[in-house]
Amino acid sequence: MQNGLQINKKAFLSSALILFVFMIIAGSLTYIIVPGSYKRQIEGTREVLLPDSFEWHKSKPCPVWRWFTAPLEVLWGKDAKIIIGIIVFILFVGASFSLLLEAQVLEISIALLCQKFYRQRYILVAILTFCCMSMGALLGVYEEILPLVPIVIAIACSMKWDVLMGLGMSLLACCFGFTAALVNPFSIGVAQSLAGLPLFSGSGNRLILLFLLYVLLVIFLIRYAKKIESNPKSSPMFNPESIQNTNMVLRVTEESPGLKKACLFFYLCLAVLFSYIFFSPFFPTLQQYSLLILGLIFFSSGAGSCWIVKLSVKRILKKTGKGILGVAPGILLILMAMSIKHIIVNGGIMDTLLHYASGYFPKAQPIKAAFFIYALTLFMNFFIGSASAKAFLIIPIIAPLSEIVGLTRQTAISAFCLGDGFSNVIYPTNPVLMIALGLSGVSYWVWLRWTFPLQILIALVSLIFLAIVATTGYGPF
Length: 477
Description:
Blueprint: H1 9-32, E1 36-37, E2 40-43, E3 46-49, E4 55-56, H2 64-73, H3 80-102, H4 105-117, H5 121-139, H6 148-158, H7 163-179, H8 185-195, H9 203-230, H10 240-245, H11 259-279, H12 284-287, H13 290-308, H14 313-327, H15 329-346, H16 350-359, H17 366-380, H18 387-404, H19 409-421, H20 431-440, H21 444-472
């Protein structure tokens, strides 16, 4: 991080190759699967699918040349606002970190935290994991965790751990909280509204699951931390040169007169950032601008800190440009990841896939039905990362079907949320995951190998939880 955030070349190439392969697969499917569509109707500001309205269409496969133009087409497609918002957000974050490092604010802040917890390092693991998990569980934060990921990674490296620990305490924790959330407005809130359930009902059972996931994640992280402490070479990210850089945040070469004021300004900006994250769910009109607002707050912290320590405007602009260039390759990863859904939708086979799946819905056995909804959502999440977008697509179909087989709607919503969340940190089509990996220099395959045992355990816990609530009448209905 000494030179700011940069997309690692090796991680970028491996991620781009994986996404390219999936783009080819998505395009090929449009030649194999017959297109079809469900009718939609507008309810308020929402577009809701009508379950019994599926119609077959004439085959119009996506032309091969459009497989390769899809990453550009998404910029004026249906998801253009979201994609552009993420891109601008990433550029703001890249510029911000470059400026914060130049002002030495980040080094001092992290050094103070590490010195305070150096002898209580495992308590720090529990605290950071709890904070990031709570943001996901209570506020529905996921994309917004990205500015904090490099900070937590820097903390992890300063504690003689590695970047995987930093990703685990930030991205992984936030995703787990998002999945087993108590009041997540984007997954539980939207899904329960579509199913006609009281908003955020059934939180008691979810609280138990959330606590269990927290314990499992903290144990996983602490065991890994102890492993690499005893043998640094056991880290998949081991690099002899990086060991010399782990103390980077503990060394501050010069202290300018305004450095203390700059640190206070940075803390104030962080307080504003967390306040916005906390209160924004209560103001729906702000939600569509959240990434832009958070990016501006974070950029202000960097630019303001540099101004306070009396860096020249020319130097600030130079570091801003350098920070933007460092994360610019991540834009291609975002466009490629989003283009996979674009190809599937343009080929007219997204609804067909959903129609095929609903035809195999178990006619009996509530437990099997819960597992089916979990698997269906897991599959759809590969193409559609947005929890609320999937809810509008899937819930109108599975909610009435679940009651036919004796499965409560609340259980169906739980199966949907569990199928939606955890795979966000597995699928290479998730732009947030790919950006986080690119910024941290972790290849997708290293990440997959590291998290795979935990993901298998979490999948088993999810299925056991669903089996229990499916047989106990998880309600209110």
